[in-house]
Amino acid sequence: MNDGLFITATGMGVVFSVLIIIMISVIVLSALEPFLNRLFKVEPEFVRPVRKKAAAKTTITDDEQAAIKAALAHHTGMKVDSFDLKIK
Fold first, then answer.
1. Residue 47 contacts by C-beta under 8 Å, 6 or more apart in sequence?
2. pTM for the whole thing?
3. In the chain, what are the domain boundaries?
4. What whole-number distance in Å separates Cα of residue 41 and Cα of residue 76?
């Protein structure tokens, strides 16, 4: 029984120690990055976000509009006739 507890505690201690070492090394390396960039004259590369093209205009059928109204009415607890949908 004591051997099992000792092995479990030792294993958990090793894993915890390794995770602490990894955490400290990530913190140190992220703090050193600006210094290393200046030392080696490396400019950080910025990637421009790609704009998505506008979706093609689609038409919504009357059945789809009725389903949307019914879902909104059910969700809000209001009457279906109280909604005036303007779908673009």
1. none
2. 0.45
3. 1-45, 58-88
4. 58
Per-residue pLDDT tens for 14-58?
999 999 999 999 999 999 988 888 888 888 777 777 777 766 667
Q: Could you tell me the two tokens for 18?
A: 């390794």
Largest separation between any pair of C-alpha atoms in the chain: 73
Phi/psi zone of residue 28: left (φ > 0), alpha (ψ -120 to 50 degrees), beta?
A: alpha
Exposure string of 35-46, with b = 16+ CB inside 10 Å and e = fewer, is eeeeeeeeeeee
Range 77-84, long-range pairs (CB < 8 A, 24+ positions): none
| Amino acid (1-letter code) at residue 62 | D
Q: Where are the alpha helices (DSSP H) in 1-88?
A: 2-39, 62-76
